[in-house]
Amino acid sequence: MKEITLGILASLFFAVTFVLNRSMELDGGSWMWSASLRFFFMVPFLLLIVAVRRGLKTSFAEMQRIPGPFILWSFFAFVLFYAPLTFAAAFSPGWLVAGTWQLTIVAGVLLAPLFLYTIKTSDGEKRARHRIPVVSLGISRIILLGVVLIQMPHAGTVDGRTVLLGILPIVIAAFAYPLGNRKMMETLGGRLDTFQRVLAMTLASLPFWLLLAGIAVATVGWPSWGQVVQSFIVAVSSGVIATTLFFMATDLARHDQGRLAAVEATQSLEIVFALAGEMILLSLPLPGPVALGGIAVIIAGMSLHSFQTLLAKRKSIAQAL
């Protein structure tokens, strides 16, 4: 249950992304600066945290040992995750971005066969592919039903341009984030702790963010002071706190695809927190009864995921005794 609690806390801090990205877009800020500034601000905080924990040497050594995987999977987990989200905020309201992002719940479950695990047989150890956890997939569908209910009252306002530019990028991000995160965990095999891994992946993704910032300077100029401040808040809340909490949770559950799916499903609460944030900060009106019913379905689905995780943990302990 610890990983579920960490996942829920992460979703609370992640929700800041959707609210402030939409706020920056309404204020005329460029999505390119919203994306790149977050990761620029993350670096000094992560360097300080890892340095205090005496982990810098190990982090840099691991990056030098396998630079290719770090660059590749950091690109998936960070660049193909966050750039599409900020881009989508320029074409879609916050509720649509947060709602569509919940596709990552099912994406994480469907990605299971791409990963291997070790099993012991009479002939020695063998590598086998994970199977899609059917129960977790079923519960994830319940959560997605809640997401659909939340979006139904607004569905009539979505045109073709919004679908192409505001939804398709989020679909890409929904698959890229869990793929990059899981592949990096698999590659490292626990050699770096959560803070070291987030730092190393952030540093590995910096060339891409520098390129994006350069394009921003050439096309839209420098960011406003308000966008810098809001990007700083996003960096601390979502980039440092939320990412670290979420990676801690996935580290705890990395050997069990069912538990891992439950952790990734906690992100469904982001839409609830984002909705509340937009109501408070952006004067979004109270959702109607259908949307409120969707929120209730999401919470019910999360409860089922937590219950399933608890049962699986007890069964594992019983088998070990």
From TrEMBL:
Keyword Repressor belongs to the record: no
Domain of life: Bacteria
TM spans (from-to): 31-50, 70-92, 98-119, 131-150, 162-179, 199-222, 228-249, 290-311
Keyword tags: Membrane, Transmembrane, Transmembrane helix
Keyword Endoplasmic reticulum recorded: no
Coiled-coil regions, chain positions: none
Name of the featured protein: Multidrug resistance efflux transporter family protein
Organism encoding this protein: Bhargavaea cecembensis DSE10
